[in-house]
Amino acid sequence: MSSGLLLFQQAETLYHRGDENGAFEYYQKSIKKILKDENVTAKLPAIVPPDFPQELLGCVWRNFITAGLTLGVLAWDNHDRATAAKRYREAIDVANTYSPFTILPTGTIGWELYVHNDLLQAKSNLGTIVQNDTINAELVAQMGGKDQVPGRRDVVDLPVPQMRVDKTGATTLESSMAFATNACSSCGKRDPKLQHCSLCRTALYCNAECQKAHWPATMRSACCKPKAPEAFMRV
């Protein structure tokens, strides 16, 4: 069975080959292996710069988040808004599990500062995508599609063409767009990773609270009863 270090080395090899998706998966495998079976304080078997994590887990964690952010940027450059939003969300969710990434202590330097700055950029990018989807969904409703709630990867014609600026500074006008998010069936909030109702597998919710608020009035005929929050399926 591969060790956490070996899985990390495989991830690094894939990343340097340009296979960010493969690297992303192996970083996850390495983190899970270390947390489950190994010493989480084990040091890297190599000399590293002073501003780099000394622990293997810290190093894998940092590179995993960075890979997620890179995948988000690459997907955005390829006009794949849905994948970009999903990768940003994944990186943000992982970073949020370690408080120094989100609430940076005064005077922090080194890798935690770098990840924190990347995290701020990811939140900004995801916020822009969600805001654009929310505005465009409202425009679609105003143009006569009141019963139409665009979902993730649904392509819709825009009432007003929008300008897109790519990384080179070139601009294009787009008359249609693919949505990157779904809307919560209860509160209407949009996000690239909502949870399916565990019974009907159709309705999408932010969390168990939204499901409980929505179910009595709307979903009773479709679902027998709401299940425990852990029965949700992430998408």
UniProtKB/TrEMBL annotation:
Protein name: MYND-type domain-containing protein
Molecular function (Gene Ontology), one example: zinc ion binding
Database matches in SUPFAM superfamilies: HIT/MYND zinc finger-like
Pfam families referenced in this protein's UniProt entry, alphabetically: zf-MYND
Keywords on record: Metal-binding, Zinc, Zinc-finger
Entry keyword Acetylation: no
Residue ranges constituting the MYND-type domain according to the UniProt record: 184-223
Residue ranges that the Swiss-Prot or TrEMBL entry lists as coiled coil: none
InterPro entries: Znf_MYND (IPR002893)
